[in-house]
Amino acid sequence: MFSWPAFSGAALAIWLLLRGPAAKTPIWLQKTCRTAMAFFLYGGFLYLLKSNTLWQLMPSIGFENRSKTEGFLILISTLVWLVVTLRILLRGFPIPLARSATLENPYPRQKRTRRGLTLTDVILFYYSLKGK
Q: What is the model's pTM?
């Protein structure tokens, strides 16, 4: 049976692999490695939540109800894992609607100039000095 240090070690090994030899591999292989790394981190966190040693320390932090806190942490970690996995898998794909809107812009960008002093600014400054 795996434990949280084994999952964390596997995630670290994949990260080191991506920083070294797998840095020049095809993008689909890098995405597969990143997805596996995210899964190992997620699994390691879930195993950490099941350890009794962690829950012996939790009352000192202020978490009294184990089942409620554990359920909430599982929910949050699952949502984070899903977002991270989708971001890994979908990064790099073009979004056609966003690109077409920028290419078909009929109005060129105007250079922003510095705003000058207006009559309103002068009046507000005058009345702020007059009130003192």
A: 0.64
